[in-house]
Write a structure and sequence with these properties.
With 131 residues, the protein is mostly beta strands. The protein has no helices and 12 strands.
Length: 131
């Protein structure tokens, strides 16, 4: 029932920007904690950014994402965004949109597309940064 569809990935040169979108269905996005993971050359996913769905506003960014990435949401459009600026070649990865059903607790690293019921994954969108 829960579906997450990422879009906005593509190829860009170092220093460029991309805006990823995650369109959700099957659940009330406004009540959900959402985040982005990415999978680079390693076989596991690393947490990029999260945004709290209820309560006080809170955003988390991995160290590599600080000041360069920005997470946001538009609940009316059932969409979460990840604006990525000043992209670097090491940002090349598949980026996954994830719904957190684990009380807003996130693992910094975990298996990509884990079938744990506490995490719901999209199919991912490829980001490639050249140079």
């Amino acid at each position: 029932e829960v579906q997450l569809v990422e879009s906005g990935g593509g190829s860009v040169q170092a220093g460029g920007s991309l805006r990823l979108s995650c369109t959700a269905s099957g659940f009330p996005l406004g009540d959900s904690h959402m985040g982005w993971y990415r999978q680079g050359p390693e076989n596991e996913c690393e947490l990029v950014s999260t945004i709290r769905g209820i309560g006080t506003t809170y955003r988390y960014y991995a160290e590599f994402a600080l000041r360069r990435f920005a997470i946001s949401r538009d609940n009316a459009k059932n969409t979460v965004y990840l604006q990525m600026d000043s992209l670097k070649p090491e940002d090349t990865a598949v980026y996954y949109c994830v719904r957190n059903a684990n009380g807003g607790e996130w693992a910094e690293k975990m298996a990509c597309s884990s079938k744990d019921d506490s995490y719901y994954w999209g199919r991912g969108t490829q980001v490639t940064v050249s140079s």
